[in-house]
Here is the input.
Amino acid sequence: MARSQEIKDFRCFIDGEWTDALSKETFESFDPFTGKVWANIPKCDGRDVDRAVSAARRAFDTGDWSKLNATQRGHLLRRLGDLIARDADHLAATEVQDNGKLYAEMRGQVGYMPQWFYYFAGMADKVEGAVQPIDKPDMFTYTRHEPVGVVAAITPWNSPLLLLTWKLAPALAAGCTMVIKPSEFTSASTLELMRLVEEAGFPKGVVNVITGFGQDVGEAISTHNGIDKIAFTGGEVSGRRIAQQATGNFKRMTLELGGKSAQLVFPDANLDNAVKGVVSGIFAATGQTCIAGSRLLVHRSIHDAFLEKFLELAKTARMGDPMEMTTQVGPVTTQPQFKRVLSMIDMAKAEGAEVAMGGRRADRPECGDGWFIEPTVFVGVRNDMRIAQEEVFGPVLSVIPFNEDEEAYQMANDTPYGLAAGVWTSDMARAFTAAKRLRAGTVWTNTYRAVSYMMPFGGFKNSGVGRESGQDAIYDFLETKSVWLAFNKDVPNPFVMR
Here is the structure.
């Protein structure tokens, strides 16, 4: 797949119009493979946030969107899903040039995205209230579910389109309107998606995108009283700051944060499958996923045999241009993250962890001037080391042996995070026990990195609040209202609660 050779200028999408930032300023977006500028993005500020929130507010309160019924909203969502399927090649290529992830993965990811829009399109008119069998005489009571209002989606740089979809589809199905702030590192694919939102026929102001930096745009969103809910995916530090800033008007929040996920390999596991699963969990997407299986807990009896097989496979990883279908490990998405991963590797060495593979910047000819790091494996790691406790968000694996099942569960749970875990075993009793004992929002057994629009996703502990995808996701964008109707003609004593 060819990459764009010319620098592209993008504009924001506010109230159904393509517009520059009011400041007229822009900033550069870099291609992680070449390290060169490929796009200019509008540099918005609080004034642009006000414009976008006002547009979303009008659309929600009095605009054409507010007059549509749930079935009509579902039709628009389905139409958007069809358009994404039609333009999946272009969207995937845009994302690869902006964030450096593999085209092979992005094409599959974008090709799967329409399923979220189809799924929630079908759910839009299936949200039902209920008649309550109340204990009061002469009363009829029922509940109804109403959209929470204006939702701000703040999305990360690692999978901008997919992680936006997890928010956008249920929010629109619920009847909310949206203000979207993509990462300043990867705004282009979200802006390209807005062309399809426009083509699908969504009324003006329903979906708005403003681009810029956290201090200019993110904080203005978090503190804005016109926003009713924030749906955020990103790092723990940013999530905590957003949560603190959002308390002014008690915004509802969904926060999907980081992880330090463990993969547990038991002695009865199919080693060949486990090796592939662990490689996928840490080196696919260059380790830049919140669910990266960055800690390998392997039973001591098979530690050496497993590590030998693992290193043999991992060393065959093909690095290079992420646009090429044969590439298996691409660059780190941002230069700051590239530097951070290298500093974390140096930190692990200083802690006493031993490098079994990698541990440096990649200088292979096929990596050119891009931000590449060799897939890295540390052995001799203790679970209390920083490299085993802190999220690296890069292709770095810590290997830790264990002796007993309970020891493995305790180590897996002994981090501030609880997003995901992997279990490799042929013993189904052990599989069910592990699923119960592991404090994580997702537990995969004999597989890893599987996601679906049907399955809820989210974390325990510092890994976040709330769930995305699955049937429950739409209710995170709804408020429950209780309605009471009295039949009696005479109002009883007004000073006594009934």
Q: What stands out?
A: Residues 70-86 form the longest helix (17 residues).
